[in-house]
Write a structure and sequence with these properties.
The strands form four sheets. Strands 1, 2, 17, 18, 19, 20, 21, 22 and 23 form a nine-stranded mixed sheet that branches. The chain has a six-stranded antiparallel barrel with strand order 3-12-15-14-13-16. Strands 4-11-9-6 form a four-stranded antiparallel sheet, with no helix packed on it. The N and C termini lie far apart (about 95 Å). By secondary structure, it is of the alpha+beta class. Strand 20 and strand 21 form a beta hairpin. The chain is built from four helices and 23 strands. It has four domains: about 90 residues, conserved putative lor/sdh protein from methanococcus maripaludis s2 fold, CATH 2.40.420; about 100 residues, Elongation Factor Tu (Ef-tu), domain 3; about 70 residues, Beta Barrel (OB fold (Dihydrolipoamide Acetyltransferase, E2P)); about 80 residues, Helix Hairpins (Orthogonal Bundle). Helices cover about 30% and strands about 35% of the residues.
């Protein structure tokens, strides 16, 4: 019993001696684990896509009809019938309105009666003059009397001509002007007058507006652009025939609810003076409209070619980062280090952005994982070709 504490102490020392190598081994293995560097971030790289493009300028404008007509009556009378439905499409010479024809029929009959009377009087004066020619040779009548008969014949001929004109006018009123027909093809608006109303006609401004017609196909699109754009377009079209250089410019258009510029047209007019108040000039394009989708007064956006064709480098728009007011890309060099490239941007084409300056065509651009890298940091690149996007709508550079 007296030796028990000593034996216990010996056992403890022996146990510590056995554990010390194990504790030393554990300490030597934990130090490298705590000091190991994290692996380089994985990023996706791609070389820029090379493509021949044309910069496009965008403007907001409004559709206008090629032809627009206010339908009014040449004659005064009571409206007898309306021959169309409000808002329908009409063809040229379609019957629209009919004015009560009976008064004009009576006027025509009176004019024909007066013409018959004038012709009868002309026949009498011709016979009288023929008799006078024999009498004046025989000195039976005087020269003065013969001249009077000659004058009477001329007056009768003039009366016949005047009455023929009156008959012609009466026939026009009855057969054409009493039936009001469409002067152009297009869409007609609502009728402004109901049958039974008296219509003041004529050529003055007090005539009654019956309806309006606007042409639909083709249709024009008007917009304005500033002086700098005008100079750019003029230099772009230099060398072309001045009479047709604008009409050879192809444009594209989209409506407010459409994502892409899918309607093709062409320029057909640019105004001859820049506005002194706004500093802009009016341009006009023409578009086919067989289905009547475009309506006068409707807004849209138009694309006008703003540069000659040139070779450009394109990268995904998501690969572009911003540093205050400057744009930059991250590229991977031969040592797998991330490098910063400040670039000048061009327009977007689909999901790709044109890079005008600051990038070479053989450089590897980080297109995915941009938020995980900093300039000078080593990365683990994975090559992936940038997605090819079909040529589509473009917009101005940011």
């Amino acid at each position: 019993m007296g030796h028990t504490p000593k034996r216990a102490a010996g056992l403890i020392l022996a146990s510590l001696a056995l554990l010390s190598p194990l504790l030393a081994g554990c300490g030597s293995n934990s130090a490298p684990a705590q000091n190991a560097a994290p692996p380089p971030p994985t990023v996706t790289i791609a070389t820029p896509e090379k493509r021949t493009i044309v910069d496009q300028d965008e403007y907001v404008g409004r559709f206008v009809a090629v032809d627009s007509v206010e339908v009014r009556s040449r004659l005064s009378g009571y409206l007898a019938a309306v021959h169309f439905t409000d808002g329908q499409m009409v063809k040229k010479d379609d019957l629209l309105f009919t004015i009560d024809r009976r008064p004009f029929q009576i006027v025509l009959e009176q004019a024909r009666a007066n013409l018959a009377q004038a012709r009868a009087n002309l026949a009498y004066t011709e016979n009288d003059l023929a008799r006078g020619q024999h009498l004046v040779r025989d000195k039976t009548i005087t020269e003065q009397t013969f001249d009077q008969r000659t004058q009477a014949k001329r007056v009768a001929e003039a009366a016949v001509a005047a009455n023929e004109a009156i008959v012609h006018q009466a026939e026009l009123d009855l057969n054409q002007y009493s039936e009001i027909r469409a002067p152009i093809a297009g869409r007609i608006g609502d009728r402004r007058v109901s049958p039974g109303n008296l219509i003041p006609g004529g050529t003055s401004g007090s005539t009654t507006l019956l309806a309006t017609i606007v042409s639909i196909d083709p249709i024009r699109f008007e917009f304005t652009f500033d002086e700098s754009a005008y100079l750019r377009y003029e230099r772009l079209n230099r060398g072309k025939d001045p009479a047709s250089r604008w009409s050879s410019t192809e444009v594209k258009l989209k409506l407010l609810d459409e994502p892409t510029f899918e309607h093709d047209g062409r320029m057909d007019f640019v105004d001859n003076a820049i506005s002194q108040t706004s500093g802009t000039i009016r341009g006009r394009a023409v578009f086919a409209n067989p289905n009547g989708l475009f309506t006068p007064g409707m807004f849209g956006r138009i694309q006008v070619p703003g540069s000659p064709a040139y070779d450009a480098l394109l990268v995904p728009d998501a690969a572009i980062a911003t540093e205050q007011t400057r744009k930059y890309l991250m590229v991977v060099d031969g040592e797998n280090l991330a490098r910063q490239r400040y670039v000048t941007l061009g327009p977007t084409i689909g999901g790709l952005r044109v890079i005008k300056e600051g990038l070479k065509e053989d450089e590897n651009v980080i297109v995915d994982g941009l938020m995980r890298v900093r300039p000078g940091v080593k990365v683990a690149p994975q090559e992936k070709k940038a997605p090819a996007t079909a040529g589509g709508p473009t917009s101005k550079a940011d």
